[in-house]
Amino acid sequence: MKIVTICGAGIGSSAILKVNAERVLRRLGIAADVVAADLATVAATADDAQIILTSEEFVAAIGKTYAEVIVVDNFFDTDELEKKLHRALG
Amino acid sequence: MVLPPITETGVVLNAEAADWRAAVRVSGSALTAMGSARAGYADEMIRMIEEHGPYVVIAPGLALAHARPGPDVLADGLAVVTLKEPVPFGHPHNDPVRVVLGLAILRVETHLASVAAIANIFNDSDAVGTIAAATSADEVLQIMGAGR
Description:
The complex is a heterodimer. By secondary structure, chain A is of the alpha/beta class. Chain A is built from 4 helices and 4 strands, in the order βαβαβαβα. By secondary structure, chain B is α/β, with parallel strands linked by helices. Chain B has helices at residues 20-34, 40-52, 111-122, 127-132, 137-143, and strands spanning 11-15, 62-66, 77-87, 97-104.
């Protein structure tokens, strides 16, 4: 399974989401490839992704996708991430 | 996991900022003072927010200001700014901002480890509050685990 994290630059915030998503997935015992990307490359990167993790600002800009888009409010709250990923994958 | 270099010069406490642009600019000046970025990097960080919105406010009270690697970045670095008065960035959940981190990175490929180190600090939900309340740069460096 592939999960893509999106932010404006593809560094910094999307990388934090990637790191914390990997931690939560380990906790949930789910194997997945987590890739950080920016808006410019989201179409290509998320082509085969099941889930996109991002902040509210980017939902409209991500455009048409087959992936489930999950909005994360607090990138450092692994409980929020766990709840949302569990709901999507559990 | 190693934090991006953070030094006393890169810590600015109780900065007065009238708005979010001014707050981001303080973190840019700190990165410049540290030798991590040229003066123009502050404008690039501001442009990212103008273009994409206040997404850099990634947790309650905390903004991670950053732009892409480029000619304005001289070395990896992390600046920590606490604001005298909290400043709204326009984020739906995480406003107002009390702590601004300014992040400069040279290469995308190598920055994941340092971002993981930042996550280690701020996954503790008390971290923003204790940094906002810090009264010396040394104290901030201790909290960040970068103390001597």
